[in-house]
Amino acid sequence: MYRASDEVANEEWLGDLDEAADRLDLDDDARSRATDLFLSTVPDADRSKRATLATSLYVGALIAGDRRSQSAVAEATGVARLTIQQRWKELLETAGLDAPEW
Q1: How many structural domains does the chain have?
Q2: What is the torsional sign of CA 45, 46, 52, 56?
Q3: Is residue 100 part of a domain?
Q4: pTM for the whole structure
Q5: Which range marks the domain in which residue 85 is found?
Q6: 19 found inside a domain
């Protein structure tokens, strides 16, 4: 869970998340879930925030049933696809969900 002050402290990052969600044409539910995931797991180090933002978008879309490929999310957020590939299952489990067995 996060505090309202987390939203204020990460306002710029949330703007980046919104812009990437626009590029991905994500629905409102996916955006909301991605925002919640990001704010609940945001790291202290700025260099890790971009990776967390990208992974949150991927997982938020996955949870909401508005799936996007790891490559598409990586391109929209400016991270490597491998970054998302390495982090998404852990973030999904942090959210209390089981990763799919595809």
Answers
A1: 1
A2: positive
A3: no
A4: 0.91
A5: 4-94
A6: yes
